[in-house]
Amino acid sequence: MSENLSKVYTPEEFENDMYKWWEEKKLFKPETQLELGIVTPDDPVFCNTIPPPNVTGVLHLGHAITIAIQDLMVRYNRMRGKRALFLPGADHAGIATQNVVERELNKKGIQRKELGRDKFIEEVWKWKEHSLSIIVQQSKKMGISSDWDRDRFTMDNQLSKAVREAFVTLYKRDLIYRGNYLVNWCPGRCESAISDLEAEPKETTGQLWYIKYPITSKEWRTPKGEWGSGNWAKGAKNFIEVATTRPETLLGDTAVAINKDHPVFGKYLGKKTVIPVIGRKVEIIHDDHVDTEFGTGAVKVTPAHDPNDFEMGQRHNLEFITMMNQNGVIDNEYGGKYAGMDRFEARKLLVEDLKQENLLIKVEDYTHSVPHCQRCDTVVEPRMSLQWFVRSKILTKKVINKIESQGLVFVPPKQKERLYQWINPETIRDWCISRQLWWGHRIPVWYCLSCEHQNTGLEDPVKCEKCDSEDLQQDEDVLDTWFSSSLWPFSTMGWPENTKDMADFFPNQMRETGYDILFFWVARELMMSVELTGKIPYETVYFHGLVRNEEGKKISKSMENIEDYDPLKIIAQYGADTLRYTLISYSTPGMDMNLDPKNLDGVHKFGNKLWQAVRYVLGNISEDFIPIKIEELSIEELETSDRWILSELHSMLKTVTKAYENYAYLESARDIRKFFWNTFADWYIEISKLRIYDENYNGIDPRHVLVNVIDKVLRVLHPIMPFITEKLWQQLPKPFHDQQSLMVSKWPNYSETFINKDLTAAFTKIMQTISDIRKIRGEFTVPHSQLVNAIIVSDDISLFESSEREITALARVDPSTLKITQKIDPPIKVITAVSGNTTIYIPFEGLIDVKEELNRIDKELAKLESFMSKIEKKLNSDFAQRAPPEVVSKEKNKFEELAQQKLQLVGRQKILKN
Length: 914
Ligand SMILES: [Zn+2]
Ligand SMILES: [Zn+2]
Hints:
By secondary structure, the chain is an alpha/beta fold.
């Protein structure tokens, strides 16, 4: 029956076709489960919405691990008899996508602004169609069991309606407002406000400039010359000193703050100082937050360009001057001679001029953390601008109350603390949701040009609701991408409509994601869901770690062997199942995983082992063989080895199911592999052959057991390696097919009645004995064709007697000479092996040519000794001092290894000389 399986495990021969078949049969749809009668509408559901991969590129290992774990969860729950929905979709990724498309256009010599908003958006849609279809194809290669009829995109009509509903609802509840606020501004390619989370701090070596500002007095009221002439501050007597890492921002200074207790500057409180360049006069003020001990003890206050100064500006009602434009260019009105210059160019020149004017006290090297744009790596500029905000304090307070009263499972639990630290209503800042982009959901607010009223609503207004003017203008900005992503668990289900999917699948059961987007995404989903639906959006949040290389380094495009980590290359070489198994066998919730591409080989070998074992079993089954299901076999009828393997099988089913339930997928993968390879294939298949090939045997046919075990193993392995398990399972004899496909068939229950610890102990003993004899055969190079004589001394005579057939066949012992006894006087001219209370004696006379073996040992010993003395010499020379410690210790280890080998040879020599 094995003719449908090719000789070697070759995933590319069947993975794509298998996926097509699943799709054609609509097996990914929860409705199909109902139609097939596998579940009823009352059965529990399992819904996971895939974290929308953004449309900017191709599948990478981050996507691959996400798919591997989520698809495992969905397939497992589907087989557990739950109505399972794995909802796919993608995110429009505002800034990221706009950047990519803009870059592509630039290559063709086209500028975004020349193209215009509508044309540009058309280009982005084209790009989206193209790049999304690539991502979808690649996800399918991973075996993702998603219902593609429910594929969603954050800018679809229906999801856009959800965004509109959310915005308008929050606006009406006064949870969204527009205001002037200090935001992180990317003056680079993005030219947009970005969120705090998108501004990544980077350790940067910069400088700290100490500058002095003249204080006005009777003698010196105003600058005495042009800025840069060297006479600007001529005649000034008193100065106040400040230090800054961004000297150019002094163009926006509107105060200098000190603490009134400052020993030197305290006396200047209330006096006026003149800001260099355009000569603005500002007051020296007291602020409790200024630390006399820090820096010079006085600070320049630039309310429109620094978060602390912004607050100080509000406390003291200072003027807010924006001295820099959206692209990082110095403003015309406030820039003086630096107007129109890039911020860094202006900085250089300004510092020169400060020197010229004798206002630069000193410069120090200074390492500090500077926020960089996550998208384009530009230095982020804190900048005041008019933006839209979500009131985070109110929303997070509700989230915490809801979680505390209703519960939400965090895997691993410590991620809850991380979340709580971030959503702390005391410290969280309002969420800036407007972006100065074209690609995204345009803010649904229309400003009345007659009365300035802000109009919003579910329909586009034709006239102002306050003054009836038709002179309306829509806000130019779009919403932060995370605004639409935060609605994902319910916008994908049809919210705000009362759809069937909303009733069936919301709240979802699972949110599975990388821990790196806990704040970006999970926190915001919680905020939106609790406010808009009154519910926590899912029952469990599971976080996986990042995939790193074998040395624990982040995998980045600049790595030399980056191709080794390309999931598509890996799939082409090894198949998707190998990649999935490998990723899962590394993954512990919340922990980063170090992926060693070398391990793919080993996993592929496991796949091949599985393939070959099933092929072998099927090759021994004729078309008319009707296997009996294990549940219908009575234990008494079975032979000891059958009962043993079934006991091992059910123990495995028990621990593996428990591991799946506890998200210990690494253990599931490991235990299935260990059982199948080390127990079933290495031992039971070999043992069963003795009966299959014995024409005189007329007891229970071990092929029933073989097929039963294989069926169960394929089932529990399916969520991890879906393709190979389905392919092999399809070949099994019919009685095992409760469904047309393994992916919708039942999870195998374990049964305690099969589990027998005594059998495990007994069989471990038999296997140990067989291994011991094999080892001796190997050490003394006994040819395979030659049988050995053996004496087994043990208290368990009956156990060994009942396993004579296995021992003699697998250890190649002459059955006519095998002696099993409880006691014996120690024989001579034997090789001995002891393990536990079992002793094995193998007489060597007549088995090996003692003289020749001793000669061989002598030669080997001589070789070893000369090698050892060389190393010894080396270690005693000055090499030990000169060479790096790891090289020296390598040599020492080598020596130890050789010493061990020598000891063994001497032992053998002694045995033979007896
Ligand atoms: Zn940027
Ligand atoms: Zn109006």
